[in-house]
Amino acid sequence: MNSFPPRTATLLYELDKKLMVLLRDGRTLIGYLRSVDQYANLLLQQTVERIHVGKKFGDIPRGVFLVRGENVVLLGEIDALKEADQMFERVSIGDILALQKQEQDAKIEKAKSIERSLKRRGMRFPPDLVQDDFL
Amino acid sequence: MVPTYCKFVIFNKIVRLTSKMLFYSFFKTLVGHEIIVELKNDICVTGRLHSVDQFLNIKLIEVCVSDPEKYPYMNYISESFIRGSVVRYVQLPVNSVDSQLLQDAARKEITIR
User: Fold this and answer.
1) What pTM was computed for the model?
2) Taking CB atoms and an 8 Å limit, are B39 and A74 in contact across chains?
3) Where are the domains of chain B?
4) Which fold has domain B4-112?
């Protein structure tokens, strides 16, 4: 375990800790890190996908998750104190999915209205502005 | 003291081996400094540089994000590993960068190849 030089960013120190992983498509996973490699491929156990909408959040249980490294944006150990802080209100899976749908619909509606008004002025709307995705 | 990133311009052989590592060495000299990392999904993460590796993956401690309302999940973490491939910009403290030295090292690297 001590073969890598000190001060090198390595994921090995994060093994078996409870991590929050942010993916490139904007999803957040929370789970225990069981294995890593040099590409930052991650194996997570007891994973939940956490969805935040405003001050509310919901967890969808996902079990064991293997994340291909290229999809990882950032990850960090969950601070137990900060998580217990009750900043957010937990709601059921159904509720949070409904809220998420609402939020997405509102976003699409907004993009469409911008597109309409741009069209009236003879400009084209770049379609990729709608997507949250990047890269 | 000579920072590590210009040390290897002195040793030609090492340069050949590590010439791609200029910015890796450069970042290693910044360990402990406060930096701002802007990601390709527009998140701006501020934190103290804890460590960096060959892929320029960055580990930050004392993390805070510029717009916590928009990224609620960032509230859970206080340290973070950022994959090098998703970084767009790194804002560095002016006083801890010797740009002349860095420029020289970069020039030397070109001439050696």
Assistant:
1) 0.81
2) yes
3) 4-112
4) SH3 type barrels. (2.30.30)
